[in-house]
Structure formats: C-alpha cells, structure tokens
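From the methods appendix. Each design record in this collection lists the tokenized structure first, followed by the designed amino acid sequence. Records were kept in a plain field format so they could be parsed without special tools. The example shown here is representative of the layout used throughout.

RECORD:
FOLD TOKENS (452 positions):
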C-alpha cells in the first residue's frame, strides 16, 4: 500500500512559505512569533519588517544574538524544507515522499542545534537567566512577545553596533622586515564556521620583535593567543607574512620549523624513560641528519646544564617534580637551537617560587639572542623578568585584535594600570567578568601606531 500525501492548494502553499505550515494553530502561533520578532528586531536597530520575510527573519534573529552563521544556517535549511515539502506534495512517488520525510528529519535536527545556539546568544545579549532557553525551545512565541513588548528586557548591545562599530574599520599598517628578529604582518586568520560561512579568529596584527627579547603574550579567553602563536610558527598558516631573521617562515617551512620551538601546555613525555634518554631520543628526531653523534651528545649536555637538569639526568620522568618536567619540556625544544621559542603556559601547575625559577631560565635563553614568547595566566608574579608585552583582545565582532605591543613600562602607562591582571580585566567583555573596554584600546593603539 503506497503512502498518500494530499496535494497542496495555493493557499496552503502560501501559508507553508510564510508560516511553515497551513494549519490554523501553526498560522496563529507563528503569527504571534512574527509580531514578537518585529519588536525584538527594533530593539536591536534592525528594521522590524524583516520579521515578515520567511527565512530572512531567522538570519536577522541570528544577528540580534551575535550568531549570524547560525541564523543563516537556520534560514537556509528552512527554505530547503519548504521547497522540498511543497514539491513532494505534487510528486506522487513513495520514494520521493520517503526522501522528503527523511530530509525534514535531518533538517529539523540541524535547526534544533543551531536554534539552541541562537537562543543561547539571545540570553547572553539580554542578560537573563538561562532557564529562558527552555521556553524559547518549547514555545518561542511567548518569550518573543515578552522580550519584544516589555521595557524590562533590553539588549546589552545592538546588532548595528556589533557589525558597524568603529573598531571594525580600524587598521594598522604593515611593518618593514628588520632582517633580524621576528616580523609579523598578519592580515587575518579565518576558519570555516557553519554553512557557507567563515569566522575571523585574528585580524590586523603587525609587529617587529627584536632578538634577545622575552615577551609576554596576554589576553582573555578566546582572544586568539594560541591561534596567534600557531600562525607565527607556521603550524596553522594565516593570511600573513612572517619573517624570522630575514627568512619567510611559510615559504621555507621545512627548514624554518627547526628555527621555531614550541612548548605546549601539556607534555607528551614517556614517564618510564630517563631524562637523558628522553633528550637523546628527541635529539635524534629534531636535529638535522648531518649532526654527528658527538654533536648530538654535546647539545644534550648543554641543555642539561642550561636548564639545571644535570642532577636528575638518570631519573625517570615520572619521578620529576612539576617544575622539572616543565624544564625538561623546554630543554627538548631548545635542542634544535631555535631562534624563536614559544611557550604555552609553562608555569601552569607550578607554585610561585618554581615559576620564577622557570622564567629565570627563559631570561637566560633570551639573553643569548633568541626571542622567547610566553603565554601565562599569572603574569604579575613574573612580569619583572620580561621586556615586552603583547595584549590581544576580542573586539565587538568577537575577533582577536592587537590592543597593545611594547615594553612593560609602556604597557602600564598605556592602560593606566600597574598590574597585568587588571589590564586583562579591563579589556575582557562584561560577560567574562571584565570591564568591556577592548574596542577603546584597540582603536587607541592603532591610532598611536599610525602617528609614530
């Protein structure tokens, strides 16, 4: 027995397009939802009549929530479901009807996932309790009407500000390659984000770092610190030109990867190996093939001495303290004699005394003419050992931007604050416990650089 689907008439087609269905209940509930959206759009500086346009209204709601890609995905899937459903009512083929049913289920799942993200974004924008999410999921006309018509509910920022804020148009200029040291001209770093959409993680970062500098990299969660270091060491290529001692890191990556050392937050060492065995194995992998056995042995001995690991050379890695493991991780990268050494939270999990000892070693490494860049979430206990500070911040488009680069003293003067943690707090967004001044300092720094 075949599956029968009644053919739609013109009124049902129009109702399906505008309301997502032709039943009286669907038309009434969607009509109330549209009225609520009209008022919500107006609160976000978006023309209310967008609520009348099927598929486009979902995109505009995504803009209100700061979730444009998700809103776009909901609109596209809703359009495809509508077209498929209408076409399926005219084609009397049980396979087509089955396809329509399966497609609607899949599209429904996609819509639910993206809708939850949009609703969550709205909750953050309106600064209300998270339990509102259930009402948006189960009865969206109700919260739409309440938020739209009640003066009690106001967005913390508007869609127009999100897209057109002045910081979006601020741009620094490329810096000239110094020949020595690190020169970064990063225009943007993008990744795929949802359907037919890209998200910009980093944008417009330009700087020169001289040899022999110990540089602290700071920024709140999501500001792009790890993305930045991955871009400059060539691990994740950006739309950028990165020069290290006059050589292009991207174009000569096979050779330059030995010039860029990176120490991740979590080590991958085998606990049952000795310190000496660990370094010898790593030397075999990292050092060029033209190194003799004596050269490798000498380099390992140098690393043991510099990082104070000589007394534990025959100890198992599993027996080392947290500080010793960190030093061993750094020593492993040091073996290849990199010109640039990057450390991702090397002081994570160690106390203040061990952190100071660790950064004393980094100070010695920088003093040999290398560039050392370190990410840390406890900057004030070691800031006195650093030369420069890089501050990354999320702008109003949620894109990582350069809010400052310069010496420690210049940084304090620029932000008007003594402690680095207070500086990070002032640029973090309010929902992250910060003061929300990121755009202000991104613009201020760009203007100062342009007038230098």
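DESIGN:
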């Amino acid at each position: 027995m075949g599956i029968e689907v009644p053919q739609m008439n013109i009124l049902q087609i129009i109702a399906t397009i505008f309301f997502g269905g032709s039943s009286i209940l669907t038309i009434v509930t969607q009509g109330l939802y549209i009225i609520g959206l009209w008022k919500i759009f107006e609160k976000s500086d978006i023309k209310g009549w967008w609520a009348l346009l099927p598929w486009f209204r979902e995109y505009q709601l995504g803009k209100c929530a700061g979730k444009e890609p998700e809103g776009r995905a909901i609109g596209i899937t809703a359009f495809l479901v509508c077209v498929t459903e209408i076409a399926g009512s005219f084609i009397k083929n049980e396979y087509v009807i089955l396809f329509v049913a399966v497609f609607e289920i899949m599209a429904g799942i996609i819509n639910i996932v993206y809708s939850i993200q949009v609703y969550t974004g709205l909750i953050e924008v309106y600064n209300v309790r998270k339990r509102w999410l259930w009402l948006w999921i189960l009865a969206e006309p109700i919260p739409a009407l309440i938020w739209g018509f009640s003066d009690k509910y106001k967005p913390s920022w508007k869609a127009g500000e999100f897209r057109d804020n002045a910081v979006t148009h601020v741009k620094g200029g490329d810096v000239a390659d110094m020949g020595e040291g690190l020169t970064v001209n990063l225009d943007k770093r993008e990744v795929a984000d949802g359907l037919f959409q890209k998200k910009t993680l980093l944008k417009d970062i330009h700087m020169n770092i001289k040899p022999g500098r110990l540089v602290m990299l700071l920024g709140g969660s999501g500001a792009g610190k790890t993305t930045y270091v991955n871009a400059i060491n060539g691990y994740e290529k950006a739309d950028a030109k990165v020069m290290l001692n006059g050589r292009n890191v991207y174009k000569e990556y096979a050779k330059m990867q030995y010039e860029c050392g990176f120490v991740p937050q979590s080590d991958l060492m085998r606990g049952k190996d000795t310190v000496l065995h660990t370094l010898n194995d790593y030397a075999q992998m990292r050092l060029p093939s033209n190194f003799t056995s004596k050269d490798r042995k000498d380099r390992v001995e140098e690393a043991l001495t510099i990082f104070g690991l000589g007394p534990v050379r025959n100890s198992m890695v599993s027996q080392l303290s947290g500080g010793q493991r960190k030093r061993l991780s750094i020593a492993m990268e040091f073996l290849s004699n990199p010109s640039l050494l990057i450390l991702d939270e090397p002081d994570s999990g160690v106390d203040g005394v061990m952190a100071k000892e660790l950064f004393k070693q980094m100070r010695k490494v920088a003093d040999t003419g290398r560039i050392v860049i370190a990410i840390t979430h406890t900057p004030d206990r070691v800031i006195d050992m650093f030369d420069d500070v890089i501050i990354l911040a999320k702008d109003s488009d949620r894109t990582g931007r350069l809010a400052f680069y310069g010496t420690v003293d210049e940084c304090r003067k620029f932000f008007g604050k003594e402690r680095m943690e207070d500086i990070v707090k002032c640029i973090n967004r309010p929902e992250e416990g910060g003061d929300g001044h990121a755009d202000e300092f991104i613009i201020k720094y760009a203007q100062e650089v342009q007038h230098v």
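APPENDIX NOTE: The beta strands are 182-192, 198-209, 214-219, 239-244, 247-248, 260-263, 340-344, 371-375, 388-394, 400-407.
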